Amino acid sequence: MADTQAQQMVYECSVCGFIYDPAVGDPEHGIPAGTPFEELPADWVCPLCGAGKDKFEKQKSSLSLVNTESQKTIKEYRNDDIIVYWYPEDCSHAGKCWGGLPSVFDMDKRPWVNINGSSPEEIIKIIDKCPTRALQYSLPEGSAVDPNLAKGPGAKDYKADLDKAGKIRVIRDGPLLVEVPVRIIDTDGSIVGEGDRFVLCRCGKTKNAPFCDGSHIPGH
Length: 220
Description:
This protein has three helices and eleven strands. The chain is mostly beta strands. The strands form four sheets. A three-stranded antiparallel β-sheet has the order 2-1-3. A three-stranded antiparallel β-sheet has the order 4-5-6, with no helix packed on it. It starts with a helix and ends in a 20-residue tail after the last strand. Mean pLDDT is about 85; it is low at about 1-5 and about 60-70.
């Protein structure tokens, strides 16, 4: 029982905010999943900032960090051919939906989704453009929609391939560390960065947007 509790405890780096979760381990540095913090080698350091084990503080159970879909609020709209799901907590209100298909998506109306305002095929095209997956869709049994049209990124059962996924780390009171191949596009459509290592500002103080220049550090 004690071993199970130890594996459930997570530890946070007091320097950069990195979370060591025993359930995940640090496989990039030879620490397999299931390794309790207490069993880490004495010379193990934070993979993000290089701080030693003594800079880590015990935090709450990793089980509470898991974001389960069952805990989210889900609004559902359906007819005979399509079911639309809306996850309000995930919505960034980017406007792709109501800007692209206002006959279906209208924030000034209640309900704001008029499932019969357009064809299910058009609804699918718009939901596939949702940047957060706050909107999703599925086809009910007996739907007249070609199922091959309903397999895009907005499909409820869509699964991204995470085997080759990189990482974007959030630094406490600091920037975003990008560790995945990306192309950064400016507001005018020009490419301002291509690569797999970037530090992006999230405080708005940088003089080299969108990249962090350390302006968030007191006294910089």
